[in-house]
Amino acid sequence: MRLLAMADTHVPRRARGLPPVLWRAVEAADVVVHAGDWVEAALLDELAARSARLIAVYGNNDGPELRARLPEIARAELDGLRLAVVHETGAATGRENRCARAFPDTDVLIFGHSHIPWDSTTGTGLRLLNPGSPTDRRRQPEHTYLTAEIRAGALCDVTLHAVPRSTERNPG
């Protein structure tokens, strides 16, 4: 099962749309995860229409329309892997312990908010992943998103992708 994760797209405030390379990744994925901060519902509608399966949450920059349509925390079992998605996990200091306590029955937690890619594993075995942002890199060197494979309940081949600079902004 091919997984694609993104967060903090901030469309249309930080970009007019997703980069073409990301749309190609969406179309190749079996499951697309968006960890919040959409800003407007139009991207949610387009991503839902173009994804085989979408798992998504709202973020702190998402207003009433998105909050009415999306949960704060999403959970799914994917080929035996227990996945949770949330926008914000708090400060980096203490994140592993906080998340291990808050998500004891989860194998992988995908989160956003910071725009900073993150990949760590807690003492309980919970994998924490933040894909960064494909449209608003803030203080990061590149715009990013994440792909992985799920095989028999295990997360494999986790790859952080930099959005090529020539395709960072979608003109349409």
Automatic annotation (TrEMBL):
InterPro entries: Calcineurin-like_PHP_lpxH, Metallo-depent_PP-like, Phosphodiesterase_MJ0936/Vps29. Its EC number is 3.1.4.-. SUPFAM superfamilies: Metallo-dependent phosphatases. Coiled coil: none annotated. Residues 1-151 form the Calcineurin-like phosphoesterase domain. Belongs to the metallophosphoesterase superfamily. YfcE family. This is Phosphoesterase. It comes from Nocardia jiangsuensis.
